[in-house]
Amino acid sequence: METRKIVEEADQYLMPTYSRFPVALRKGRGARVWDIHGREYLDFLGGIAVNVLGHCHPRVVVALQKQAQRLLHVSNLYYIEQQVRLAKLLVTNSFADKAFFCNSGAEANEAAIKIARRYSWERYGAGRSEIISAIDSFHGRTMATLTATGQTKFQKGFEPMLPGFKYCAFDDIESLRSAVTSETCAVMLEPIQAEGGVHIPAADYLRHVRELCDEKNLLMILDEVQTGMGRTGKLFAYEHSGIQPDIMSLAKGLGGGAPIGAMVAVDKVAAVFQPKTHASTFGGNPLVCAAAIATIETLLEDGYILDQCNRMSAYLMERLGRLKEDYEGKVIDVRGSGLLIGIELMRDGLPYVNACLERGVLIGLAGNGSVLRLTPPLIIEERDIDHLIDVLEDVLDKVP
Ligand SMILES: Cc1ncc(COP(=O)(O)O)c(C=O)c1O
Question: Model pTM?
Answer without folding.
Answer: 0.98
